[in-house]
Design goal:
About 15% of the residues lie in helices and about 20% in strands. The chain is built from four helices and six strands. A hairpin with an 8-residue loop joins strand 1 and strand 2.
Length: about 150
Amino acid sequence: MPDRTARRPATPPSVAAPTSAPAVARPSTPFVSDGTPLRIIPLGGVGEIGKNMYVFEYGDDIVVVDCGLMFPDEEMFGIDLVVPDVTYLREHREAVRAFVITHAHEDHVGGLPYVLPDFPGVPIYASTLARGLLSTKVREHRLTNNPMLPL
């Protein structure tokens, strides 16, 4: 059977890269870590559709990316909405610096009305479109303690 794998054609010598490429300016000091780990903690959205919520923790600072909900499946009788378990965030409430919203689909923002009351004053960063869509949700649930700021 013939070999059907794609092969990259040889570069003709007339178009080969120059041997002395211009030097790229690099910082004189490389990035140095102080040894503090960046912890990425998924509270939802991994291996499931919905409940997208990720915690980025570095030292004493936490940034939450998205705060979604999930609609129940047919086996969840009597359940209207499923939100991520935010016990970890409640236990580290003083370290939460911001909520960052990637976009305004319900699986990324639907949990905000149920989570934000526990985090008064923590800003929400989102794009202009996402802020526009969130403004209705904010008014509907009377969420006035969290400023919405542009990304």
